[in-house]
Amino acid sequence: MPITSVTSDPEALTLTVVADYPVSVERLWEAYVDPRQLERFWGPVEYPATFLQHDMAVGGESHYYMTGPDGTKHHGWWRCLAIEPHRRLEFEDGFANGDASKNDGMPIMRMVFDFASTKTGSRFTGVTYFPSVAEMEQMVQMGMMEGMRSAMSQLDPLLADLSAFAASRGTEAQLLNDTQVRVSRVIRGTVEQVWRAHHEAAQVKRWLLGPDGWTMPVCEVATTVGGKYRYEWEKDDKSQRFGFEGELLERIAPYRVVTSEQMIGVPGPATRNELTLTTLPGGTLLSLVITYPSKEVRDMILGTGMTKGMEASYARLEREVLKAA
């Protein structure tokens, strides 16, 4: 087990965890900022975590839940206060209700994670600051220390697996629950480059084409919250044409954008698409969480070969980004 020490200081209202790992700081940092990796160890062994949002930028929020052995979900949230890549991460950590709203009846803690190089690899130092002695005692009695040890025991095999989350892997879709899917891919390029590729119509028309043999004659990009967008595609031989339209719901440049999406001419509820861009050593992690109106709609869309078409587009996006660099 990598944990070197776990100490509490009732006077300073802190709980400090120190752990050493035989990997680089960059590899250790990546495990905390990539939601696919973080959810492999954030919850105790019996309570695996699922991250529905993980915005690694100052002011950004993360929302997750841990699923117990009986299927009960325990929700939590983060709010990022400070971030120094490969060195320091500071955030507020609290409990949430089932609708992701903050649970005001439970403590809100401040956590500071420091990452440092050592002769044998890297060291993690995590300090949790509690609001009061009573709330610190409450969390300790709830099993916080045991849960932390259990959770971090899962980090060793994750760090040792160098290929599982390699930048060379293609587009992957992960089922988060009955209605949500997370699509992930690492794009070789900066966050700013990938952001521009999503928001400049001239670039969008060059890469957002799916399989070969299609063009994008209509590309109306929304640039302000409340604005509408419209994308249409047509086969080269003019035999087929379809499109999507929706509204820009949230935009925090250059790392987060939320939209609704609906197929043109098809009635029914829209999907909700949450795109997050995160800097990783291998480039930019593109994470797209799609919320469908039902499990049936989710499965129908996935069954169309959506992931394969998205990989064709993202591979083209990567080539565009590298070409422009």
Structural description of this entry:
With 325 residues, the protein is an alpha+beta fold. The protein has 2 domains: 3-160, START domain (Alpha-D-Glucose-1,6-Bisphosphate, Chain A, domain 4, 2-Layer Sandwich); 172-324, Alpha-D-Glucose-1,6-Bisphosphate, Chain A, domain 4, CATH 3.30.530. The chain is built from 9 helices and 16 strands. It has an 8-stranded antiparallel β-sheet. Strands 9-10-16-15-14-13-12-11 form an 8-stranded antiparallel β-sheet, with helices on both faces. It is globular, with a radius of gyration of 21 Å. The chain starts with a strand and ends with a helix.
Which helices and strands occur, and which strands form pairs?
Elements lengths: L2 E7 L4 E8 L3 H9 L1 H4 L10 E6 L6 E7 L5 E12 L3 E9 L12 E10 L2 E9 L3 H9 L2 H9 L2 H6 L11 E4 L4 E8 L3 H9 L1 H7 L6 E7 L7 E8 L5 E12 L3 E8 L7 E10 L2 E9 L3 H8 L3 H19 L1
Antiparallel strand pairs: 1-2, 2-8, 3-4, 4-5, 5-6, 6-7, 7-8, 9-10, 10-16, 11-12, 12-13, 13-14, 14-15, 15-16
Helix pairs in contact: 6-7, 7-9
Concise summary:
The strands form two sheets. An eight-stranded antiparallel beta sheet has the order 1-2-8-7-6-5-4-3. The protein has an eight-stranded antiparallel beta sheet with strand order 9-10-16-15-14-13-12-11, sandwiched between helices.
Brief descriptors of the model:
eight-stranded antiparallel sheet; alpha+beta; 16 strands; Alpha-D-Glucose-1,6-Bisphosphate, Chain A, domain 4; 2 domains; 325 residues
